Amino acid sequence: MHPFSYTHVSDTRAAIAAGRRGGRYIAGGTTLVDLMRETVERPERLVDISGLPLDEVTVTERGGLRIGALVTMAEAAAHPKVRSLYPAISQALELSASAQLRNMATIGGNIMQRTRCTYFRDVTAACNKREPGSGCAARDGFNRTHAILGTSDHCVATHPSDVAVAFAALEARVHLLGADGERRVPFAEFLLRPARSPHREQALRKGELVAAVEIPALPRPLRSGYLKVRDRQSYEFALTSAAVALHVRGGVIREAKVAAGGVGTVPWKLPAVEQHLVGERPTDALWAAAAQKAADGARPLAHNAFKVELLKRTVERQLRTVGGNQ
Question: What keyword terms does UniProt attach to this protein (predicted)?
Answer without folding.
Answer: Oxidoreductase
